[in-house]
User: Fold ABC transporter ATP-binding protein from Aquincola agrisoli.
Amino acid sequence: MNHSASDPAAAGTRREPASALLAVHDVSVRFGNIVALDGISFEAPAGYVTGLIGPNGAGKTTLFNCLSRLYAWQTGDIEFNGRSLLPLPPHRIAGLGIGRTFQNLALFDSMTVLENVKIGGHCTSTSGFLSNALRLPYVRREELDAGRKASELIGFLELDAVAHLPAGQLPFGTRKRVELARALMGDPQLLLLDEPAAGLNHEEVDALGRIILSIRTDLGVSILLVEHHMGLVMGVSDKVVALNFGRKLAEGTPKEVQQHPDVISAYLGGRP
Ligand SMILES: Nc1ncnc2c1ncn2[C@@H]1O[C@H](COP(=O)(O)OP(=O)(O)OP(=O)(O)O)[C@@H](O)[C@H]1O
Assistant:
């Protein structure tokens, strides 16, 4: 893939109608007097990269934390594949097909890249404590499969050269790719990326854009991307949702959202 992340053609922005993989209906979250989300509704269609933008404090991370069931919402509902997330505890979310990366890297520094990636398959493993302790044949088979899959993802993310190095020794940009590989080990249908470009240099952001598009197109994983780097969001997203002060300002193609007067005003410091 030779496209630049900031080249809209590279995103292959999709026009065909798509079904909603994720549907957020009228969700509100309050922390005391602070209204972090105020009746937010939008859909993230299957097969899309959906970008979620907004100035600091707009409510993006709060929404991600709702999707991971780390925060509770007071009104509305969030559905994944038509199923409400409301009754589910956080540890069931990955098994449902929602994977995520975090703003701050969450890798085990003393473990190798391969070991870190393999851990990501834990939520899809069917073996329990007893079968693991007894090392039953199917547990060994699962381990072999996990090793094979981790190696494939390491190849996909061009991490072969560092697969056996401790994650803590690697440069920041490389560690971010390890985190992506680990999130993909869980076979997500939807991958939540929380500011993946933070701390990356220009070349690394371009490479990240190509990786995001490849995850969508080659692996068939839909993506919800929270990001401040406008070049990246506008270059890779099929649709964009803009928030400010917990409210939705605009939703549409990258071009429509970029040109929306409320979005322009929000980024220039205006309050709706
Ligand atoms: N756990 C919490 N307790 C109290 N207030 C919170 C909590 N989490 C978020 N908030 C508040 O909710 C609002 C939205 O914050 P949030 O972190 O979701 O914004 P954001 O769009 O992710 O911002 P940034 O781009 O800076 O990460 C802010 O006013 C924030 O201070």
In short: Residues 31, 34, 36, 54, 56-62 surround adenosine-5'-triphosphate (CB under 6 Å). DSSP finds eleven helices and ten strands in the chain. The chain has two domains: 18-97+188-267, 109-171. The longest strand covers residues 20-31.
